[in-house]
Amino acid sequence: MAAALTAGALTACGSSGSSNDSPREITAVGVGESSGKPDVLTVQMSVQHQAGDVSTALNEASARAQKVIDAAGANGVDKAQISTANVKLNPRYGPGSEITSYEATQSLTIKVHKLETASKLLGDVTTAGGDATRIESVGFDIENDDELKASARDKAFAEAKTRAEQYAKLSGGSLGEVRTVSEVPVTTKPTTREFGANGVPGAAASPVPIETGEQSLKVTVTVVWGLS
Q1: Cα gap 34→155, rounded to integer Å
Q2: What is the pLDDT of residues 7-63, one digit of tens each?
Q3: Phi, psi of 124 (to 5 degrees)
Q4: What is the pLDDT of residues 82-105, one digit of tens each?
Q5: Strand pairing of 82-93 and 99-112?
Q6: Which residues, 6 or more positions from 59, have their beta carbon under 8 angstroms from its beta carbon?
Q7: How far, in Å, CA of 222 to CA of 201, rounded?
Q8: Helices and strands in the chain: count of H runs, count of E runs
Q9: DSSP code of 215?
Q10: Which residues contact 187 (CB under 8 A, 6 or more apart)?
Q11: Which residues 6+ apart lie within 8 Å of 94 measured at CB?
Q12: Which is it for the CA torsion 105, 111, 114, 118, positive or negative?
């Protein structure tokens, strides 16, 4: 795990002469970041087919999409982790603006939990889809990130408290009880890579090198303490 700490805002309100209606407070911001190994790979891909009539274009694209789905299943991907993201059918025009053909596109989202199979899977689905295969991107993520969030919150709060204690000491006081804690929604640094792979007719695509790297998430908290 790695922590990244950034400068936070701190304010002190009131003074020794303040009334009870304006209590002295210190507000500090803390940022904590934690990293871990991704446990899921999401593949965004599509298959296309162009033909002179609508039915042929759509039927061929559907057949290629089914081959991709079957190839993913053969690599251990459950059908529940494969979804149709989009289906498009567009006319193609010639020089005189007349329709010359139709292009059908079916987009798929595939989630891979067995990351050790990812390299072979990418090669196999590309081969299955043929020369109309398009792999738009692959992205790694941590599906079960509760422990990372907890660790990042610990770091964020500790940073805020350390900063607040320093300013309390400089102001001649000490920290009292925590009055409010607020958290900015957790942000993650996605590991997404563009991927421009097309199938080669009559040839099998080799396994694609895949490195998971690390996924990180960041928590920012604002804490208000009483100042005594």
Answers
A1: 9
A2: 334 444 433 344 455 678 999 999 999 998 888 999 999 999 999 999 999 999 999
A3: -70, -40
A4: 999 999 999 999 888 899 999 999
A5: antiparallel
A6: none
A7: 57
A8: 3, 9
A9: E
A10: 217, 218
A11: 100
A12: positive
Q: Is 167 left (phi over 0), alpha (psi -120 to 50) or beta?
A: alpha
Residue 198's alpha-carbon distances to 59, 68, 135, 186, in angstroms, are: 20, 13, 7, 36
- By C-alpha distance, which of 228, 191, 225, 183 is closest to 210? 191
Q: Which amino acid type is present at position 171?
A: S
Residue written as token pair 């609508």:
54
Q: CA 168 to CA 12: how far, in whole Å? A: 8
Q: Which residue do the tokens 């199979």 mark?
A: 117
Distance (Å, whole) CA 225 – CA 180: 7
Q: Give Cα separations from 132 to 48, 85, 103, 115 (angstroms).
A: 5, 17, 11, 25
